[in-house]
Amino acid sequence: MIAEQFKAAFRRYPTGVAVISAVGPDGPVGLTASSVASVSVEPPALSFSAMGTRSARAVLAAESFVVNLLGPASAEVARHFASSGGPRFTEEQGWAFLPTGEPVLRHALASLRAAPLHRLPVGDSTVVVAAVHEVFLGPGGGRLVYHDREFIGN
């Protein structure tokens, strides 16, 4: 009962949207996350949580990843990375690769290349705290939020 109430409570709470991307053993991987938060400015650090999907396991095992903070132009990308089977990492979606190998979404509001400092398993998820090594600012303007199971951009 409390699990359903917990999910209902967070459906009422709008959050920002990110796609976390990395290079796994079989190529690029990514997942949509609505749990990204700033942890520290000095040193720069962020956090997010990921559930035990195949993509999440690859991101969690990676030595580095990119947290792509999404704006309204990326709503469809967020949908594709929130479920399996959709197109991923296509040039049409705006993906490129950093010199360090990680996929980066060119039209993200910002992309932060980071490396994990701590991984804390909690139930069926893992909370990651990561040091931010590089910040790439994309085009500003607009917002994309996840609210009540919908991606809403404006």
Automatic annotation (TrEMBL):
The entry's keywords: Oxidoreductase
Top-level taxon of the source organism: Bacteria
The keyword Oxidoreductase is annotated on this UniProt entry: yes
SUPFAM superfamilies: FMN-binding split barrel (SSF50475)
Domain Flavin reductase like positions: 10-153
Keyword Oxidoreductase: yes
InterPro entries in alphabetical order: Flavin_Rdtase-like_dom, NADH-dep_flavin_reductase, Split_barrel_FMN-bd
Protein name: Flavin oxidoreductase
Naturally occurring in which organism (per UniProt): Paractinoplanes deccanensis
